Each structure stands twice: as structure tokens, then as C-alpha cells.
């Protein structure tokens, strides 16, 4: 519900689909393009072996990752990421494994991986905070180091 509400407040009408709807959780209707399907995944922030993911056969256009606050992560964050970007950054298992269809991210790496897509409630297909990401790189922050950028963000 929070993702649908934030999208609507940003000027994109959205509503939650019925529970257990296959592939996505929210449908949003931007005025300049067809309806957009949003798959919502939420986790409480945790360092270490905690993951958020989806299956490659799920049908959606945007992945919304909602991170809830906990120790070391003080504010809720919502990342709205285009599916092709999520696919490109996702971890995956070998094609011969039983979990070959799973795409996943470590929860403590999400803030660094998707910094550019934080609060992207306009469903912009281009990164929202590219200047922030570039500024972090200029300051020598390693955005690939297990959650290091999460402390800066």
C-alpha cells in the first residue's frame, strides 16, 4: 500500500492489486505511457546473509524494494527500479540449479546498488540521483563494498 500511495502522491495514479496476484503487486498509470506493473518486496534492513529477490518468470515492469529501518539503517527507503536494471544487477544461480529462476540481492547492498533509484515515484527510466552517485565516487566511496555506501547514504 505504501508504494501505491507514494506513486499516487507523486501524480501517478496507482492501486494495489488483490493479494496473491501473479507477478506484481501494484498497477500504476502514468499519463504518458501504458500501465506499469510494480512488484513490491520489503525487508527489514540487516547486514549479512539476508536477501530480497524475485523469479525471472514474474511479470512486472518495475521492482520496488522497501527497506524498513533497523539498527544501522535509520529511515525507511523505497527504491523503484526498472526491470532491466534489476535484471542486470541481480545475483543468480547456475542455470542447472533448482534455484536458477531466482534473482536476488543482499539486503545490505541494496542502498548502494540502487542509490540512483531511491524514491523514484515518478517512475523515471533514467537514474534519479546520478549526481549523488557521482559525488560519492569522487569522494572515494567504494559503492561495491558490502554496504559501505549504506553508511554514507
What class, by secondary structure content? alpha+beta
What topology, given as strand order, has the largest sheet?
Answer: 1-2-3-5-6
Major sheet characteristics: 5 strands, mixed
Give average pLDDT, whole number: 86
As a whole number of angstroms, the C-alpha radius of gyration is: 15 Å
H/E element sequence: HEEEEEEHEEHHH
Beta strands, count: 8
Strand content: 25-35%
Rough outline: globular
Helix content: 10-25%
Query: Could you list the spans in which at least 5 consecutive residues all have pLDDT below 50?
Result: 141-153
Discrete helix count: 5
* End-to-end separation: 25 Å
Keywords:
5-stranded mixed sheet; 3-stranded antiparallel sheet; 5 helices; 8 strands; globular
Characterization of this structure:
The protein is of the alpha+beta class and 153 residues long. It has five helices and eight strands. The chain has a five-stranded mixed β-sheet with strand order 1-2-3-5-6. A three-stranded antiparallel β-sheet has the order 4-8-7, with no helix packed on it. Strand 5 (62-68) and strand 6 form a beta hairpin. The longest helix is centred in the last third of the chain and has 9 residues, at 130-138. It is globular, with a radius of gyration of 15 Å. The relative contact order is 0.16. Residues 141-153 have low confidence and may be disordered.
Helix/strand layout:
Blueprint: H1 2-9, E1 14-16, E2 26-28, E3 36-44, E4 51-55, E5 62-68, E6 77-82, H2 83-89, E7 91-92, E8 102-106, H3 110-113, H4 130-138, H5 148-152
Parallel strand pairs: 3-5
Antiparallel strand pairs: 1-2, 2-3, 4-8, 5-6, 7-8
